[in-house]
Amino acid sequence: METIHVPRPSPKKAMNPDRPVNALLLAQISHLQHAESRLPLRYRSEVYIHAIKTEGEAAEYIREVTEAIHQAHADAAKQRAKRAPKRGLEIAAAAEPPKRKSTSKGKTKSSKRAKK
User: Fold this and answer.
1) Close Cβ partners of 66 (under 8 Å, ≥ 6 residues apart)
2) What's the rounded Cα separation, in Å, for the pair 5 and 96?
3) Predicted confidence (pLDDT) at residue 95 exceeds the cutoff of 90
4) Which of 7, 13, 39, 85 is 20 to 30 Å apart from 93, CA to CA?
5) Residues pairing with 20 in the sheet
6) CA-based R_g, the chain, Å
7) How far apart are CA 63 and CA 49, in angstroms?
8) What HEC string does 65-107 produce?
């Protein structure tokens, strides 16, 4: 298989906060807005996404929503840990299940055939 050379972006051109936002960033912003809409109200930003026009504004919104999602998950984990039931008493001894008695009495059919 032939190797495809992909040039690395130069640091100066990689991110320009004043450059107009492109379609890829707009799609990412849309997905983040959907994720943000599922968060409790206290974690949501007050950013109107249709007003985002530059990469810098997009980066700020992405950072805010990502931090809010992480904070919401961390707070939920703390709440689950608080509500987790404490370990109660463990059973000191467990009974072994009774041994099953064999229901067949005598010889099996295969052993009777072998004798004939």
Assistant:
1) 32
2) 66
3) no
4) 85
5) 54
6) 33
7) 13
8) HHHHHHHHHHHHHHHHHHHCCCCCCCCCCCCCCCCCCCCCCCC
Q: How far apart are CA 34 and CA 83, in angstroms?
A: 29
**Whether this model's pTM surpasses 0.85:** no
Q: Are 29 and 58 in contact (CB under 8 A)?
A: yes
DSSP label at residue 39: S
Share the mean pLDDT of the chain.
84
Mean pLDDT of 70-93: 81
* Helix H or strand E encompassing 113: helix 109-115
pLDDT in tens, 9-45: 777 777 789 999 999 999 999 999 999 999 999 999 9
- Is the distance from CB of 62 to CB of 28 less than 8 angstroms? yes
DSSP 4: P
What pLDDT score does 28 carry? 96
